[in-house]
C-alpha cells in the first residue's frame, strides 16, 4: 500500500524541509562572514552604531506603504534609516530631513547585511522573516510587520509572519487569524495593534484632492495576483479577448512578481497584443492613476482589489480560480479566508463558462447598487481607524522604543 499525503500536508512538509535547508545554509554562510570579518563583541555588527528605527523593503513598489509613516515620524523628528533592494527606489527622490535611504543590493548580498543589522526596531512589509534568506539579527531588538493590503493576513506563503515580534493590522478578523496560527503552531503571542492602513489613508486623501476626468469609453483594468491560482494563469488570453470583443478598452497590470516568476507567460501575452491598440500594459510603480481612471476591475484574490473598492469605491469582478490554500498560512485556519467570504458581497464572480458573456457581467457589476453596500461592509470590517493609520503606527513605534530603552536601563 502506497503512503498517501494530501496536497496541503505535502505543501507544509516541503515548506518545513526547505526552511531547514535554508537554516543550515545560512548558518554556514553567516559563519563564513564572521570568520572573514571577525566575530566581535555583542553589538559589533556590519551596521556599526545601533539605529533606532530601520525600515526594510524588498522592492520599490512598497514606497507608498512607508511614505506616510515616515512623514509622521518626520513630524516628531525621529530618525529613520530606509534600506531598499531597489536601486531606483523613490526614497532617493524624497526630501525628508530625518530619513536616510540606502540601497543594500539584491538577493543574498542584501540579506547578508540584514542578517547582521544593528537596530532597535525594524519595520517591514516583507514576509518570511527567519524562514529562508532573511534571518533575525541578534542585534535587532524588535521586528514589526505591516501588511501591504487590507485582506487576510494568512494569504502570505506559509510561515510568513511567524517570527515577527509585532503585527500592525487594520481589522479584528486579522487579529483572530494571527492568534489561531500562534495557537496551532505553539508560537509565542505577538504584540498586535489595530492601527488602520496608512497608505490607504494617503490614497483617499489624494483622491479627495484630485479631479478625475470621466472616460470617453469604459476602461477595464485586469489586475491579478501571481502563482498557479492567479487570473492570468487560469484564464489568460481568452479573458482579454472576450473583454476587447465586448467593446471595452483593456489595461493589463500584472503583479510585479509575475515579471520574474511567470516571465514566459507575461512575454507571450505581451507579444500577442503588441499591435492591438485596445490592449495596454501598465507597470507604473504608483498605481493611483490607473486605479482612478479605470471603470471596473477584473482580478482574483489580489490585495489590490481592496485598494480599488475601499478607496475608489469602484466595482470588481473576481475570477473563480479554484484557489489552492496549501502553500499559504490560510491552510491552517479553520474558517474560509475573509477575502473569499466578502468578495461575493462586493462584486460578481467570473467563471470559465461566463467569459463569453463578460459584457453583460461588467454592466451588471457597475449598475447593481447591492455591490456598493457590500463594499461599505468590507470597508467597515477591514479598514478600522480610517484617517489615523500613520499617526497610530508612529505612536506604536515610539512607545515601543521607550519600552525597549526602559528595559535596557533596568
Describe the structure.
The chain has two domains: 48-197 and 386-409, Rossmann fold (3-Layer(aba) Sandwich); 214-382, 3-Layer(aba) Sandwich (Rossmann fold). It is of the alpha/beta class and 410 residues long. The strands form two sheets. The protein has a seven-stranded parallel β-sheet with strand order 3-2-1-4-5-6-7. Strands 10-9-8-11-12-13 form a six-stranded parallel β-sheet, sandwiched between helices. The protein starts with 6 loop residues before the first helix and ends with a helix. Helix content is 42%, strand content 15%. It is built from 15 helices and 13 strands.
In short:
With 410 residues, the protein is α/β, with parallel strands linked by helices.
**What is the average per-residue confidence, as pLDDT, rounded to a whole number?**
88
What ranges have pLDDT less than 50 throughout 5 or more consecutive residues?
Answer: 36-47
Structural class: alpha/beta
Strand % is: 15-25%
The CATH architecture designation of the largest domain is: 3-Layer(aba) Sandwich
The CATH topology of the largest domain is what? Rossmann fold
Amino acid at each position: 500500500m502506497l503512503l498517501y499525503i494530501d496536497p496541503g500536508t505535502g505543501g507544509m512538509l516541503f515548506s518545513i524541509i526547505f526552511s531547514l535547508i535554508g537554516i543550515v545554509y545560512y548558518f554556514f554562510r553567516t559563519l563564513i562572514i564572521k570568520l572573514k570579518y571577525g566575530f566581535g563583541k555583542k553589538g559589533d555588527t556590519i551596521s556599526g552604531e545601533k539605529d533606532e528605527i530601520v525600515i526594510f523593503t524588498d522592492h520599490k513598489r512598497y514606497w507608498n506603504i512607508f511614505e506616510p509613516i515616515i512623514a509622521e515620524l518626520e513630524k516628531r523628528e525621529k530618525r529613520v534609516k530606509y534600506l531598499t533592494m531597489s536601486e531606483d527606489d523613490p526614497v532617493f527622490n524624497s526630501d525628508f530631513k530625518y530619513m536616510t535611504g540606502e540601497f543594500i543590493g539584491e538577493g543574498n548580498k542584501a540579506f547578508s547585511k540584514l542578517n547582521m543589522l544593528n537596530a532597535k526596531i525594524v519595520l517591514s512589509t516583507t514576509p518570511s522573516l527567519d524562514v529562508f534568506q532573511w534571518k533575525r539579527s541578534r542585534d535587532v531588538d524588535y521586528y514589526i510587520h505591516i501588511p501591504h493590503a487590507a485582506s487576510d493576513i494568512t494569504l502570505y506563503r506559509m510561515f510568513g509572519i511567524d517570527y515577527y515580534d509585532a503585527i500592525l493590522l487594520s481589522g479584528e478578523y486579522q487579529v483572530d487569524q494571527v492568534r489561531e496560527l500562534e495557537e496551532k503552531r505553539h508560537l509565542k503571542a505577538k504584540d498586535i495593534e489595530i492601527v488602520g492602513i496608512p497608505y490607504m489613508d494617503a490614497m483617499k486623501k489624494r483622491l479627495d484632492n484630485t479631479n478625475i476626468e470621466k472616460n470617453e469609453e469604459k476602461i477595464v483594468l485586469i489586475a491579478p495576483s501571481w502563482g498557479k491560482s492567479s487570473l492570468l494563469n487560469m484564464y489568460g488570453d481568452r479573458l482579454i479577448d472576450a473583454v476587447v470583443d465586448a467593446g471595452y478598452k483593456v489595461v493589463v497590470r500584472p503583479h510585479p512578481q509575475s515579471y520574474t516568476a511567470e516571465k514566459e507567460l507575461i512575454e507571450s501575452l505581451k507579444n500577442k497584443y503588441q499591435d492591438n491598440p485596445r490592449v495596454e500594459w501598465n507597470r507604473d510603480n504608483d498605481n493611483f492613476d490607473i486605479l482612478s481612471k479605470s471603470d471596473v476591475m477584473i482580478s482574483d484574490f489580489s490585495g489590490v482589489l481592496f485598494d480599488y473598492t475601499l478607496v475608489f469605491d469602484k466595482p470588481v469582478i473576481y475570477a473563480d480560480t479554484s484557489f489552492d490554500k496549501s502553500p499559504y498560512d490560510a491552510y491552517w485556519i479553520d474558517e474560509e479566508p475573509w477575502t473569499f467570504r466578502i468578495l461575493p458581497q462586493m462584486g460578481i464572480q467570473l467563471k470559465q463558462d461566463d467569459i463569453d458573456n463578460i459584457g453583460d457581467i461588467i454592466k451588471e457589476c457597475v449598475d447593481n447598487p447591492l455591490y456598493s453596500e457590500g463594499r461599505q461592509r468590507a470597508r467597515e470590517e477591514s479598514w478600522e481607524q480610517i484617517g489615523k493609520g500613520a499617526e497610530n503606527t508612529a505612536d506604536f513605534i515610539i512607545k515601543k522604543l521607550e519600552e525597549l530603552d526602559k528595559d535596557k536601563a533596568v
